[in-house]
Amino acid sequence: MNFIVSSNTLLRHLQSISGVLSTNSSLPILDNFLFEIVDNKLNVLASDLETTMMTSLEVQMEEAGKIAIPAKLLLDVLKNLPDQPCSFRVNADFGIEIGYDNGNSKMVGFNAEEYPKLPVLENKSSVKITGEILSRAINKTIFATGNDELRPVMSGVYCQFSEQEITFVATDAHKLVRYTRKDFAADGNASFILPKKPLNLLKSNVRGDEELTIEFNTSNAIFTFNDITLICRLIDGKYPNYEAVIPKENPNVLTIDRQQFLSSIKRVSIFSNKTTHQIKLKITGSELLLSAEDLDFSNAASERLTCQYDGDDMEIGFNSRFLMDMLSNLDTTEIRLAMSIPSRAGLLMPNLPENQEEDILMLVMPVMLNR
Predict the structure, then answer these.
(1) What is the domain partition of the chain in residue ranges?
(2) Model pTM greater than 0.90?
């Protein structure tokens, strides 16, 4: 197996899929990239069994073949080379020689047949989605996913397709985000739960101007875009009925400048209890009083903000970290916080959405106030 390729081009492709590689893999073969040459095309594959990524690039082929090449060693070599043609020569004993302008490197590869085979999807459905919608949906929801190993369904993002819209939902039982796009249509209704790792890999590789094809069945999903294919195992289980936890009647509505509100919470929360991160919102008329205190250390802080408020005077407590996460992931100038009573969840949403096809709703559970 012999071929010639640009060092920078190869490095760029390898880096786009290297995020799949696991540092504590149970199979030593998974510490390698799988290289396969066919018809002047190099296909490179990386996998951790749960998620697999593949990329393709044009090369000058002298002899076809396939081999597993140590990933870290190869990346380290390419990172330290200026852009130039590199020749790869592989012998029958899996010895690899990489030749470049003023030298060469030698390493030992492994038999490609030991590499796990790709899953074949049967009874699959498929949809097409723009990179802009998928990228934005991931960015708006992934921060709200949970980490509880006892509730694996909450560790991913729930994707729901219909003929009218697409909805992405993430929750960890303390906060919830529902992101809906109306400028999307599937041929029928379908849903699945995507794990966090493939979502992060999509987030770092989707540019936004491309179209993706998503093929899926009950156990796996395949994303095809640009020169990348991502295959992942879906999270098995039934997603909680998220609509049931969203309060329908929220007569008390606070409208405020997002950046001003966020900056104020960041400052005041420095003085909050390090366990509860509790911050208190006291709303009276057009005034919002933000306060936090840590009784163990006699620390306290408060700030007054002007706001628009329609509703009864209220005192409500929230976890400041959850509020900061949510406000950082909204991008409108003003936001609305809709509430009913201090013991029920508050709803955060853009006041005037920039995109009429987009609907973002963020729910945050209250924290019981210390009296």
Answers:
(1) 2-114, 125-176+183-239, 246-367
(2) yes
